[in-house]
Amino acid sequence: MRWIYENSMAKSDDLILGALDSLSADQLDRFKYKLSTLKGIGYGLIEKESNAAVTRRIISKFTEKDAVAHTAEVLRAIDENKEADDLGEAHARK
């Protein structure tokens, strides 16, 4: 998914989806749990959802403008700092 971060035309949803796709199953489960506790998106709603569906929920709740920052915050909360940095840098380039 590195190409998404290097593509200056990538939209916020592409960037978020790329970040989620790069996580292992365990990391993704931790991301969903933290997303529910930190950002108020019910875990029961996202527990079994695909990465694309979770991405849509994040953008729906926070708007495309703010969704990347909220996603990066959750990534940092689960100690995925490199992924959060990559996401933030890619968003700054777009």
From TrEMBL:
<dbReference type="InterPro" id="IPR011029">
    <property type="entry name" value="DEATH-like_dom_sf"/>
</dbReference>
<dbReference type="InterPro" id="IPR004020">
    <property type="entry name" value="DAPIN"/>
</dbReference>
<dbReference type="Pfam" id="PF02758">
    <property type="entry name" value="PYRIN"/>
</dbReference>
<protein>
    <recommendedName>
        <fullName>Pyrin domain-containing protein</fullName>
    </recommendedName>
</protein>
<feature type="domain" description="Pyrin">
    <location>
        <begin position="1"/>
        <end position="93"/>
    </location>
</feature>
